[in-house]
């Protein structure tokens, strides 16, 4: 089966099975996300309460992901993943029971959200490390991008269908669909061929790292990776302030845009379409480097400010489309660099750190943005958060450039000095010289010869022993440059400012990072 560069990871049979199962599961997951958010918002009318539900799902990830990362590097993944799917299915069925009967009300929704977050905290690093073995190293970045594409396409279907279902019969059916969707993941886990999985070698098996120091070893390793730490810090800033749109979209739709549930469903669908476009861009990128990360962060932050000024639902939707695309490029780039630029033996713990970063950004950003939306207004919240995110992106970009040997400085200087830039200037100067030379020759031909008038004899000293100052002989012209030599203008070298955004969008800078442990 032939696949182009955009879908290179699909050449691997195991990944194809996993992608299909993931697509089914993601549809159910986003149905449940929409159902929970709208259930809480409809019962309370408060964006802060909705942010609190998101916080409860994020807190367990913050506390337990490091343990999940250690388990991912130590224990066989398949039994853990099958057990996690069963737990997710049971929790989704519990949500459906609460929504249908009203038993427990909002407290029950909060408890179930907390439990779902705990399962995801353990499952996330295990699944990330295991899924990375379904393709070879060269296809890993493309597989991550296609994973974003699967999530985005599933989000479109899940949000679109979910908006129709929740308006017609309520959120309970959404939770039932999500519960059933986890069966597809279990089937995929059973169909994957172990002999076709990829790993770094026999030493990379979980049993080989049973005495490597566990969680503390992971922290020590990350402290020795400053570039990865800065990338995670930037991911936190952009995730907390720049992309908690499940809160701000609901607040804008319910507030100044006046779109209600239908408007929220439309915005969610548009956002999902943008994530598909971003996933396609990331999949086609041969290298997802730190320049891409900073450029996408700046783009998303500036557009977020514009979104806060949008007058209506359609204009707001038009702005969040490229924001969603940039968000996927950011997430895919951070995930790719976190895995490609770190040791395979530490991959589970690095992915756990990435999960912790995401959970902290949700834990901080969702309630904060919800509170600001209620007290300062949704528009003001978007503008303020976008401005802070833009400043944080610039600071992180400068730090990354310094840590990586001023790659950006070198690229700016190189871009300003390439022969392709100098050649047109030389052509213009040469053409001008060819036009000027014949004209100068013609003027000399028609101009009469001038007689040099002898100057008076100046004297030096004014007495005996005076020496005459040499003067030109009568009728002899003053020496000049030969007419066939071209004029050479002086060249002034100007200092150029550093840090211009034009070079930040070049994803090829990832070739300057040498992955460790390969």
Helix and strand arrangement:
Elements: H1 13-44, H2 47-72, H3 77-101, H4 105-131, H5 140-168, H6 172-191, H7 214-223, H8 226-242, H9 245-254, H10 260-284, H11 290-308, H12 313-340, H13 347-375, H14 378-403, H15 407-417, H16 419-446
Q: What is the compact description of this entry?
A:
With 518 residues, the protein is mostly helical.
Q: What key attributes describe this structure?
A:
transmembrane, MFS_trans_sf, 518 residues, disordered C terminus, transmembrane helix, 16 helices, 70% helix, mainly alpha
What does this protein look like?
By secondary structure, this protein is mainly alpha-helical. The protein contains 16 helices and no strands. The protein has helices at residues 13-44, 47-72, 77-101, 105-131, 140-168, 172-191, 214-223, 226-242, 245-254, 260-284, 290-308, 313-340, 347-375, 378-403, 407-417, 419-446. Helix 2 runs parallel beside helix 4 and helix 8 packs parallel to helix 11 (290-308). The relative contact order is 0.13. Residues 472-484 have a biased composition (Low complexity). It comes from Micromonospora musae. This is MFS transporter.
